[in-house]
Write a structure and sequence with these properties.
The protein is an alpha/beta fold. The protein has helices at about 15-30, 50-65, 80-95, 115-145, 165-190, 210-220, 220-225, 235-250; strands at about 10, 30-35, 70-75, 100, 150-155, 190-200, 260. It binds nicotinamide-adenine-dinucleotide (NAD).
Length: about 270
């Protein structure tokens, strides 16, 4: 029997990349999936936006694991839409046990003081306020079940380290750890654990579209350093999903308030 048999897991940013991989990995362990994604290109990132076709592929892969999935186009900046999806998921499946807040965008600007106000705001709204909104919509449903649960927040190696030319991203990902630690205190009495993962460089669309090239041009000193201590290069999305499944399952029953690097050693620098 899977480690998440009979449980319902919500994954934000589930149309592609790590989110799709998490949804499939959780389904393989027996979870029913609620998949959330904006399915649009946002204003600031150079990388492409996800699409309805991407989400259809996530649905196909979860159903291939013989699990049910409710997939919805929702922007995590829209609290009312998230709450309405939480209600819909309860009507459909009767419970929510796990929340994986994974959605994200990576926007860059050469220096902090040259960042456009709208660009700063979009990253903070999506990465930090969107993470708070997702937890605000879904944690009450986990509490309602009375069975405890697990919240996994995706921060980044940049949640504990500086990354020049990514000020809004770095600041927001630091903020996600503050959210996680506060939730660990507040939700702990309901036996709901809150932890964060800190991915290193993961092989997804987020790294494409010229973001790495432009950042390297602006900050050659930072980007010329290979911080991976392992020989494998970029981390495949599944490498992060294995840590997410661990934190979602009872294997981590006594772990809460933790920030787990899955970064091939990047944050040792
Ligand atoms: N790729 C990396 O190297 C890396 C490193 C550290 C952390 N991360 C983090 O990992 C997470 C997953 O990113 P990924 O690498 O899979 O990139 P990705 O771009 O492939 O996936 C991100 C997903 O989030 C969705 N999304 C963006 N804004 C949204 C919004 N407002 N509402 C709902 N969905 C939204 C996107 O549509 C996309 O499907 C992000 O939080 C990212 O910041 C990535």
């Amino acid at each position: 029997m899977g480690r998440l048999a009979g449980k319902v897991a919500v994954v934000t940013g589930a149309a592609r990349g790590q989110g799709r991989s998490h949804a499939v990995a959780l389904a393989k362990e027996g979870a029913t999936i609620v998949a959330v994604d904006v399915l649009e290109k946002l204003r600031t990132p150079l990388h492409a936006g996800s699409t309805a076709e991407d989400m259809a592929e996530t649905v196909r892969l979860v159903e291939k694991e013989d699990q049910r999935i409710l997939a919805r186009k929702v922007d995590v900046r829209d609290l009312a839409a998230l709450k309405s999806l939480a209600d819909e998921a309860m009507t459909e499946f009767g419970r929510i046990d796990v929340l994986v807040v994974n959605h994200g965008i990576w926007a860059i600007s050469e220096n902090s003081w040259e960042t456009e106000e709208e660009d700063w705001q979009e990253s903070v709204d999506v990465l930090l306020t969107g993470a708070w909104k997702a937890t605000t919509a879904f944690i009450p449903k986990i509490i309602e079940g009375g069975r405890g649960g697990s919240v996994v927040l995706t921060s980044s190696a940049m949640g504990i380290k500086a990354q020049p030319s990514s000020v809004a991203y770095t600041a927001a990902k630091h903020g996600v750890l503050g959210l996680m630690k506060t939730l660990a205190w507040e939700a702990g009495s309901h036996n709901i654990r809150a932890n964060a993962i800190l991915p290193g460089m993961v092989d997804t669309e987020m790294l494409r579209g010229g973001t790495i090239e432009k950042s390297s041009e602006w900050q050659p000193r930072f980007f010329s350093l290979d911080r991976s201590l392992l020989p494998d290069g970029l981390i495949p999305p599944d490498g992060i999903s294995r840590a997410v499944v661990f934190l979602a399952s009872d294997d981590s029953a006594f772990i809460t308030g933790a920030a787990l690097p899955v970064d091939a050693g990047w944050t040792t620098f």
